[in-house]
Amino acid sequence: MYIGGGSIKRSGLYDKIRELFKDFEVSELPGIEPNPKLTSVEKGTAICKEKGIQVILAVGGGSTIDASKHIAASACYDGQPWDLVKDRSLVAGALPVAVVLTICATGSEMNSGAVISNEKTHEKLEINHPLLYPRLSFCDPTYLYTLPSKQTAAGAVDILSHVMEQYFQPNDEAYITDVLSEAVMKTVVKYARKAMDEPENYEARSNLMWASTIGLNHLLTVGKGGAWSVHPIEHVLSAYYDITHGVGLAILTPAWMEYVLSDKTAPRFARFAREVFGVGEADDRKAARLGIEKVRQFNRSLAMPSTLSEAGVLEEKFDEMAAEAVRTSGIASRAYVKLQVPDVKNILMNCK
Amino acid sequence: MYIGGGSIKRSGLYDKIRELFKDFEVSELPGIEPNPKLTSVEKGTAICKEKGIQVILAVGGGSTIDASKHIAASACYDGQPWDLVKDRSLVAGALPVAVVLTICATGSEMNSGAVISNEKTHEKLEINHPLLYPRLSFCDPTYLYTLPSKQTAAGAVDILSHVMEQYFQPNDEAYITDVLSEAVMKTVVKYARKAMDEPENYEARSNLMWASTIGLNHLLTVGKGGAWSVHPIEHVLSAYYDITHGVGLAILTPAWMEYVLSDKTAPRFARFAREVFGVGEADDRKAARLGIEKVRQFNRSLAMPSTLSEAGVLEEKFDEMAAEAVRTSGIASRAYVKLQVPDVKNILMNCK
């Protein structure tokens, strides 16, 4: 079965793939939406069961791949797909998933996670299981040439955020992981705007594409670990308002950094500022502040909005969303700086 | 079948493994030598065929793993093991190899290569085949606590050299690979001496161990490629004089850098000096020279010899060895700076 978004028909990739598989029986599930929805997963699962699908080919970005992974597991499960998100121990099998990557952002092409939005419950949650690794992924930077500027930007913010989530953690002994992370972050900062300005620049596209894959294929979590901070908050925004994931991250990240900046976090934030953005300031606290400003500048350079109101997210749901972010994540118990519901609310208020 | 060096009996690891496998039939091939020899491979192959061995457990460092890989392939081949080195297309199968790593240096625990020395022909050549990947490798830094200082040093030089061989290549567009490589090189420079001084320092051992694995698991060759320069020369030294691989690399590397330094190579050597050793010099040529001096200093800090005569390698074989290095490698046709026989001879002369 082929699963994809809409853009590949315009780019000609769709015709190419159909031609390659002309001797096979192929079912289609086009039109997977950003923040892929449970209803799409349910639709795909039904097709798999009905047609006896044997392999899923995900052609697209993180949304398409994530939906495909969830469908792959749901096709081998008798109950409701959402059960598997709530209790991953129910995953007992999965159809093989192959990937043709056309958006670089989530790293889903080389990891075992998938994030799915349940429209009814306003939950955007991750299912993660070793059986969900794609069996193979084709990552050809020329497939990114037709990617619109906005998606290139949102993807770059997502990559940078993945690395930051792994990098801002208490353990300082995994030096090699920290320097590898800085390498990937420098790459994103160097090429993001360039890929927007010159969509067919192979150097920019290939460096970003590979950064997205190794940004979240477990390499950068070796010796680190701990719960993430900004992603869980953003997932709630997306679940309530269906905003672009990268846009939510761009707004929240500097606000989170400012909120958790302290004597304890300043040295690492300062290191980030110096290594990733070349900040020369010797005082840690000052360097950390300059680093936060650099993140804001970077986001602005990608034409990202800087407030929640610009993105259409309203204050009236802040309490509910803050509670939900804490309830559905390890942010209060295992994050770099542990945050409770009022903290998350404050961060949202600072992004108004 | 268990294959290993000698040290694991002293460390207690041998007893632990025998206890774990007490319910299995186990054959042993202890005493694999550094620069593992064809005769050992032949011995191991005979045991595999005679006893119908199903799995090989390599307990040791690169020599043990490399011998195990070659044995694994030879056990599934009817002719002579050396045939497979001369013509890898003859590899049609391989027993599964598992690894318990006790020396970090070669990266063999996560790649598909093996370097074997033929004592009769003075050839030290690589066999490389996808079937030779270890199926799993246990990389526990505490197994390095008993590793002697000299082997720690030689291993660190080997890791650094692997990354340099991949980093000094003509393609400058793979920025992400370059910065990842710099990250790994910085790690080696930071921790090598520390691991010698404090053999039970987990931070130093774990960072070096992981650097050795990702130093040669293909991550750092993405977008680069091209033939290596220093390794092929060193392999000939080891094949003729059986010197420690890392010692040969330490002597040859700065001499090679000096020999190929030119207006064309200076910018990359300068970048290496700045990023890996923090050299502040703005002029490329001067920075490159400072970088070479830093490599020499690093080697001295690890108590490495700096001349071939100290290592027992004699001038009388220089002509023969130079010819052999060119004959058995891509150094004259595909290296960063292409070197002919007289060039290699000159480099050897500069190391006398």
TrEMBL record, chains A, B:
Keywords: Oxidoreductase. Residues 4-141 form the Alcohol dehydrogenase iron-type/glycerol dehydrogenase GldA domain. This is Iron-containing alcohol dehydrogenase. The keyword rRNA processing does not apply. InterPro entries: ADH_Fe/GldA (IPR001670), ADH_Fe_C (IPR056798), ADH_Fe_CS (IPR018211), BDH-like (IPR044731). Residues 152-349 form the Fe-containing alcohol dehydrogenase-like C-terminal domain. Gene3D superfamilies: 3.40.50.1970, Dehydroquinate synthase-like - alpha domain (1.20.1090.10). Coiled coil: none annotated.
